[in-house]
Amino acid sequence: MEANVQQSEAVDTTSTNGIEALEGSVPGTQPLLPPANQPQNKWQQIGTQISDFLANLPDKTVRFFVEYNQQIITVAFIIAAIIALKLVLAVLDAVNDIPLIYPTFELIGIGYTTWFVFRYLLKTSTRQELAAQIQSIRNEMTGS
């Protein structure tokens, strides 16, 4: 028993030789060691990465929308314009498939073009009248 007591007295936790005490340990007590790292397998690592990603996803999403707000709005308008154009073309294609509508619209277009030519483009005075109307519309639009 004396050998055990002498051996514990021989260990100096404050010495700088040989065995040194851990930082933050009080002399005369046993220092606590950090817990051993559990080896993680590949699936646990992947699960941890996915969990971290999903935990930070709302913050990253908000930061993305704040940073690229104008570009997102521009892309949304372009996509909306493309969808509207496709919708209009689909409606016109559907109307053209109705048997008598397409020839009727052609006759209306030919009749209006003929009226416009005879009304405004054959005589010089009517061309000047048309130019004056176009100029007044421009002035109203530009505010001058």
Shape type: elongated
Distance between the termini: 112 Å
Structural class: mainly alpha
Tell me how many strands there are. Answer: 0
Described by strand count, sense and barrel closure, the largest sheet is: none
Which whole number gives the mean pLDDT?
A: 82
The total count of helices amounts to 5
Low-confidence region ranges: 4-12
- Helical residue percent? over 70%
Number of domains: 2
Please sum up the structure shown.
By secondary structure, the chain is an all-alpha fold.
Summary keywords:
72% helix; mainly alpha; 144 residues; 5 helices; single chain; 2 domains
Set out the fold topology.
Elements: H1 2-10, H2 42-67, H3 69-96, H4 101-121, H5 124-142
Explain what you see.
It is a single chain. With 144 residues, the protein is an all-alpha fold. Helix content is 72%, strand content 0%. It is elongated. It folds into 2 domains: 58 residues, no CATH class; 46 residues. It contains 5 helices and no strands.
